[in-house]
Amino acid sequence: MSFLNLIKVAITAIASNAFRSFLSMLGIIIGVAAVIIMMAIGQGSKESIRAEISKMGTNIITIRPGAERRGGVRLDPSAMRTLKMEDYESIVREKKYVTYVSPEVTASGQCIFGAKNTSTTMYGEGIEYLDIKQWTLEDGEYFTDNDIKKGSKVCVIGKTVVNELFDGADPVGKNIRFKSIPFKVIGVLKSKGENSWGMDQDNLLIAPFTTVMKRLNAQTHLSTISCSAITEELTDNAIDELTEIIRRNHKLADGVENDFRISSQAEMMDTMSSTMDTITVILVVAAAFSLLVAGIGIMNIMLVSVTERTKEIGLRMSVGARGIDISNQFLIESIMISLTGGVLGILLGWAGTLACEPLGLPTSIPAWSIFVSFAVCTVIGVGFGYFPAQKAASLDPIEAIRYE
C-alpha cells in the first residue's frame, strides 16, 4: 500500500470511532496545554524579574556591613558598624571601574503634613544617588553638594508620599515633618510603581546623608554604600576593586574573612533567573507526567482497535498486504491521534496563557516550546503506537480471519 493510501485508511478508522479517538487525544491535549502554560508562566516571570532589575540598573553594586562572630555568636549584619565615611571617601578617590558612588543611611517613621500622615522610609544619600538608581525628577530639583556639607533639612519625595499627604497639590516648597524634624520639599521623583516583589518603590523620601546621620539617627557609620560600575561587563572588575579598597581600609590581613558584603544587580538577576528556571523545570516535569499517562492511554486504545479489527487485518493480509503495511497503518493512526491532540493542546495552552494575563500573571510563550510539543507528540505516537502496530503485523492471517 502507498503511504497516501495508509493515511486515508488511518483517517477513516479514526473518523469511524470519533468519540473514542477524542478521548485518546484528551490526555495529550491536557498534557501539552499544561506544559505550555507552565513554561509560559515561568518564562514570563523570569522576563518580568529581569525587566524590573534592569529598571534599577544592571550595573549597580551594593556594599553592606558583614556579619561577625563574637564569642561564638554570629551577629546580625544590621547591627554591624563596619562601613565608615573613610570607606566612601577612599572609593571616590581611588575608583577606576566605578562611575558613581553614594553613601546611604536609612530611617523609618511617620511623615506628617498638616493633619495627614503616612509611614515611609527616608534615605540619606549623596548627590550621585539618582544616577545610580536611575531615578528622574518630575518636578523641582535635587539637593546639592552644599546641602550635604551643611546637613540641610531638605528632601525629595516619591509619588506615594505626595498622594498620601498632598491630595494632588504641588508639594514643592512646602514643609513636612519626619520624626518631628521639619524638612523642606524641594523635588518630586517620577513614579516607578511596584516592583516584582510587590514593594512600592515610590513610598520614600531622599535627603542628604549627613542630615539623616546627624539629625535623625545620631550615628557615624553608614548603612550601605551604593556604586555603579562603568558597564555591566565590568561589574566583576569593580567588585574586585571595591573589595581591595575596603579590605585595605579595614586593615584585614590575608585569610581574614571580610567584615562587609558586596553584591550586584547582575548577581541578583542570575540568582533569580536560576531560581525561576528550577521552578519552571519542576512544574513542566509535573505536567509532562500527564503526557506519559496519555501515551499509555493511546497504546491501550490502539490495542483495543487491533483486537476489534483482527478479522479486517486477516482479510488485508490474505489479499496481499504485508506485515509492514499493517504495522504502518496502525502506527500512522497512533501518530495522527497524538499530533492532532498536540495541535489542540497547543491551542488550548495558548488560550490558557491569555487567560492568565487578567489574573496578573506575567506570561511569555517561548517559540521553541511549540516545536518541542510537536516533537514530544510524535515520539509519543511512535513510542506508544509501536507495540500495538507490531502486534497487528504479527497476526496469522488464517487465525485472524477465523477470529470472532
Question: What's the arrangement of secondary structure elements?
Answer:
Layout: H1 3-16, H2 18-56, E1 60-65, E2 69-70, E3 73-74, H3 85-94, E4 98-113, E5 116-125, H4 129-133, E6 137-140, H5 145-150, E7 154-157, H6 159-166, E8 175-178, E9 181-189, E10 204-208, H7 209-217, E11 224-229, H8 235-249, E12 260-264, H9 265-308, H10 310-318, H11 323-356, H12 367-393, H13 397-402
Parallel strand pairs: 5-10, 7-9
Antiparallel strand pairs: 1-11, 1-12, 2-3, 4-5, 4-8, 4-11, 6-9, 7-10, 8-9
Report on the structure:
By secondary structure, the protein is α+β, with helices and mostly antiparallel strands. The protein has 2 domains: 3-52 and 271-402, no CATH class; 83-258, no CATH class. 56% of the residues lie in helices and 18% in strands. The protein has a 6-stranded mixed barrel. Strands 2-3 form a two-stranded antiparallel sheet. α9 (265-308) packs parallel to α12. The chain is elongated and about 105 Å long. 35% of the residues are buried.
Properties at a glance:
404 residues, alpha+beta, 2 domains, 6-stranded mixed barrel, two-stranded antiparallel ribbon, 56% helix, elongated
Summarize this, please?
With 404 residues, the protein is α+β, with helices and mostly antiparallel strands.
- CA-CA gap between termini: 26 Å
Portion in helices: 55-70%
Q: What is the topology, as strand order, of the major beta sheet?
A: 4-5-10-7-9-8
Weakly predicted, low-confidence segments: none
Instruction: Give the number of domains.
Output: 2
SSE class? alpha+beta
Beta-strand percentage? 15-25%
Number of strands: 12
What's the overall geometry?
A: elongated
Number of helix segments? 13
Radius of gyration: 34 Å
Largest sheet: 6 strands, mixed, barrel
Helix and strand run = HHEEEHEEHEHEHEEEHEHEHHHHH
Average pLDDT metric: 82
